[in-house]
Amino acid sequence: MVRTTMVKEDLYRWRVDLQEEIIDRAGRELQRDIDFEIITDLLCNGKNAWTKVVLQPMTIETSDAVDLWLLKNCKGKYNTRGLVWVFENAKDAMWFKLRWLGSD
Q1: Could you tell me the CA-to-CA distances from 36 to 5, 7, 33, 89 in Å, in that order?
Q2: 40 closest CA partner among 80, 93, 75, 77
Q3: Given pLDDT bands bounded at 50, 70 and 90, which one contains residue 6?
Q4: Distance CA 38, CA 83 (A)
Q5: Which of 18, 74, 81, 98 qualifies as a cystine partner to 36, CB 3.0-4.6 A?
Q6: What is the tens place of the pLDDT at every residue in 40-93?
């Protein structure tokens, strides 16, 4: 009986720890999303505005191709979170749009 109670307590503690970990991870992801959105808004407004580009959902293969394309073709700074991209150089953003928006 004592062993069964210990197992149940351990299982309950494990479940609580797992739930807390899931909530913490979700909270950190939400914070990163909010931070990126704020930084993007700041970068894309003002005198030296960056250019924002939002892509459509894609496969992992296409995502890898985007990464390679950026390494090869992008001249200025850029940042991304999910499907949102911001480019310091307007020409980089233009070429990026031409290549990746609406492509299959």
Answers
A1: 47, 43, 5, 18
A2: 80
A3: low
A4: 16
A5: 81
A6: 888 888 777 999 999 988 888 888 999 999 999 999 999 999 899 999 999 999
